[in-house]
UniProtKB/TrEMBL annotation:
Protein name from the UniProt record: RNA polymerase, sigma 54 subunit, RpoN/SigL
InterPro entries xrefs: Lambda_DNA-bd_dom_sf, RNA_pol_sigma_54, RNA_pol_sigma_54_core-bd, RNA_pol_sigma_54_DNA-bd, RpoN_core-bd_sf
Gene3D superfamilies, per the entry: Homeodomain-like, lambda repressor-like DNA-binding domains, RNA polymerase sigma-54 factor, core-binding domain
GO terms under cellular component: DNA-directed RNA polymerase complex
Organism: Alteribacillus iranensis
Similarity field: Belongs to the sigma-54 factor family.
Keyword Lipid metabolism listed: no
Length: 452
């Protein structure tokens, strides 16, 4: 083996990630709100940048709000769009409502108790999480305060007597019971079920439970419905922001017999060069001030180029999506076709990773509502006629079938399989149906069954 040291030439190819390239990639994946915040930061660092706040909302444009969904994943489609004549930009200001701990602290100040107990109560309240549940144990409190376990439980009960009902619980079961105890009139039967059979109730073992308690299945179903009306997280209504207003990054509008893609440049602040620094660039002089101005001018130019590139990339990718999904824009979600990142990347002349970055957190206003751009991508499957259909269409059919089924005799996965094959020519396995049900958060037929 030759271990001789020396100088050798070697030709290699390396991709150097410059700061400007990193910036361009970052701007591409920013949402409109994130990009606006980034530009504000740049304006603070670069004195050459003058920013004019965007006219975020126009009176002829509707307001869009994200739906509040406690149990589901955020939906790609924005439903229930509120159309108003307009609203103030101040609606976008962060909501500074008091947190649940502040609300509870105000109430315990009214308790007739000595200073020691008040300090204990304040400490316990400080350990109430944003969901309304108490964290911590008696053992942890005993290290800080000279109290007995009985004193600790007494303080817990006082906190649980506060508003809202269910606050200060240490488990879901306790939270539900606290709310049931405040109802008038009381419902002892439901309280017993929650206290002793909550797991069976949640897992819908209703027949077994009805037999055990010697009641009808309808009685158990009624108890289940009542428990569903309770609030499992009584603290979440405090200190949270109102649902944010989503601004479309791009509009797709019908013009005669074709669809036009229009960028929403109004959602971004206008950037101009500061006039006070312009003279430093115009003067052909040496000096630190002039050199500093030139450096900041280069940053400004590159920033403007990056923003322009971002906007043009969004446009070209949206145009490619419109071309592939023309049926959707014409007829709605039922006409969705299979579409991959590769298809759009080839049509737009960019890399797949660019398509992925561009479609994330970017929204398009269509004739059928507001959608995230990545909503239009889905896998495909062959029909009996040899054509391809989108898995999204299959999910839409499944959801429609379940919505319209007889709840006393809900459709089994096999019946859904049979329907898809007979009515739509789509051959699909029961396992695939179960998978799509899970993605749609639709329970199995046994858990969808109703008894009255």
């Amino acid at each position: 083996m030759n271990l001789e040291m020396g100088l050798y030439q070697q030709q290699t190819i390396k991709l150097v990630m410059t700061q400007e390239l990193r910036q361009a990639i970052s701007l591409l994946q920013y949402s409109t709100q994130e990009l606006s915040e980034y530009l504000e930061e740049q304006a603070l660092e670069n004195p050459l940048i003058d920013m004019e706040e965007p006219e975020l909302f126009h009176k002829e444009e509707p307001k869009y709000e994200m739906p509040v969904m406690w149990h589901d994943e955020p939906s790609n489609e924005i439903h229930n769009q509120e159309e108003q004549e307009g609203f103030s930009p101040f609606d976008r200001i962060k909501d500074d409502r008091e947190r649940v701990t502040d609300y509870l602290a105000q109430q315990i100040r009214l308790f007739p108790c000595d200073e020691k107990e008040k300090r204990v109560l304040e400490h316990i309240v400080g350990n109430v999480g944003d969901d309304g549940y108490i964290t911590g144990t008696y053992e942890e409190m005993a290290v800080l305060f000279d109290i007995t376990e009985e004193d600790y439980e007494s303080c817990i009960r006082k906190i649980q007597s506060l508003e809202p009902a269910g606050i200060g619980a240490r488990s879901l079961q306790e939270c539900l019971l606290l709310q049931l105890e405040r109802q008038s009139p009381r419902q002892p039967f439901i309280e017993v079920i929650v206290a002793e059979y909550l797991e069976e109730l949640a897992s819908r073992k209703w027949k077994e439970l009805a037999k055990k308690l010697d009641v009808s299945v309808e009685d158990i179903q009624h108890a289940y419905d009542q428990v569903q009306c309770l609030d499992p997280y009584p603290g979440v209504h405090f200190g949270n922001d109102h649902p944010g207003h989503i601004l479309p990054d791009v509009y797709v509008e019908k013009d005669s017999d074709q669809f036009i893609v229009r960028l929403n440049d109004d959602g971004l602040p206008k950037i101009r060069m500061n006039r006070q620094y312009r003279h430093l660039l115009e003067r052909n002089e040496d000096g630190e001030a002039t050199e500093y101005a030139k450096q900041k001018y280069k940053q400004l130019v590159w920033l403007l180029k990056s923003i322009d590139q971002r906007q043009q990339t969004i446009r070209s990718i949206t145009e490619a999506i419109v071309e592939f999904q023309y049926g959707f824009f014409e007829k709605g979600p039922s006409a969705m076709k299979p579409l991959t990142l590769k298809d759009v990347a080839e049509a737009a002349g960019v890399h797949e990773s660019t398509v992925s970055r561009t479609t994330n957190q970017k929204y398009v206003q269509t004739p059928h509502g507001l959608f995230e751009l990545k909503y239009f991508f889905s896998a495909g499957m062959n029909t009996n006629s040899g054509e391809q259909t989108s898995t999204f269409v299959v999910k839409s059919i499944i959801k429609e079938l379940v919505d319209n089924e007889d709840k006393k005799k809900p459709l089994s996965d096999q019946k859904i399989v049979d329907h898809l094959k007979k009515e739509h020519g789509i051959s699909i396995s029961r396992r695939a149906i179960a998978k799509y049900r899970g993605e749609l958060q639709i329970p199995s037929s046994s858990k969808r069954k109703r008894y009255n």
